[in-house]
Structures
1.
Amino acid sequence: MAWLILTIAGLFEVVWAFAMKQSEGFTRLWPSVVTLAAMLVSFGLLSWSMRTLPLGTAYTVWTGIGAVGAFLVGVVFLGETANALRVTAALLIVSGLLLMKLSSPA
């Protein structure tokens, strides 16, 4: 259950990163509200998952989901480039996340 909660926390990290970009430096109300709400949910779920998962594993996976998710959102919705080097970097992050999962006792 902790892994599912952690995954959802990571997805909310992607939501708040995207909303923060849309808030234009917190100058737009609703994207700013979404950013803050998604941050609270993301941090709360991360905290919950840390009841069971080791700190290093939980935090690394959470930030990794956020990083790769934000990269994908940037490419798909914001027209950011997806060159070979950036895609390779994202794949390396995903590889690291899988290794963290496989090496975790929980």
2.
Amino acid sequence: MGFFDSEIVQQEAKQLFEDYQALVQIGSDYGKFDREGKKIFIERMEEIMERWRVFMKRFELSEDFMAKMTMEQFKTQFGQFGVTPQQMFDQMHLTLERMKAEVEQQG
């Protein structure tokens, strides 16, 4: 069975994408959140980033041809912005750490 033939993988990808999209949409009001709301948003974003990291690692480690092709597409897409997937995750981590520091200073 191929990587993408797995119903579990398909469901996980769908759920991850939907969760991320919903969080990004909620995040458009980040400036209006109170301190606790900002903390919760940052925690949720950290959780989603970790889920993305694990999901992409599974692509990377898979022997499935389509998974390898998808990983190469990710690398190409990130490469267009001059970063690797790992650099993107590192940058998101730094951004979230900076946001946490700002929230702590407000309190």
3.
Amino acid sequence: MANITFIEASGQSTTLNLPDGWSLMQGATANGVEGIIGECGGSCACATCHCYVDDFLASVLPAPAQGELDMLDNVTAERRPNSRLACQIKASAALEGGVVTLPECQE
């Protein structure tokens, strides 16, 4: 389990305790976090779960796979060095305390 904080574009902050193995996209959509759509259901095929990870998460997450990098080319909001797809980030104790900021738009 990991406590992950999601910061919506509005500034609303929500901390969720996510079970190991759940993607951040699954956790956000299951708990009503505004700003993640996840149209493809987590198959890395739509880029509607674009997020910005904090420095801590960036330091502990594995590098994105080529498929994720390809999909990040399709994001609507500004792509930044810390852009990731929430469907590709799996919760684990190693992510405890991480913060994810959501962009103003996904589509």
4.
Amino acid sequence: MAWISLLLAGVLEVVWAFSMKRSEGFTRLAPSLVTLVAMIASFVLLARAMRELPLGTAYTIWTGIGAVGAFALGVLALGEQLSPIRVAAAGLIVAGLVLMRVSEG
């Protein structure tokens, strides 16, 4: 259950990052509210996951999901630059997440 909580926390991190971008510096109400709700839910789920998972593993995977997810959403939904170097960087993050998970046994 800890891994499911951690995965959902990571997805919500992507949600709040995207909605924060859409809030235009917290000047738009709806995206600002989505940002705050998603942040709180993400932190709660991360805290739950940390009951069973080591700090380093949980935090690394949470931020990694957020980083790669935000990168992908930026490219797909916001038209941000997609270059081989940026894809390679995201691939290295994913490789690190896989290694972190495998190291848990």
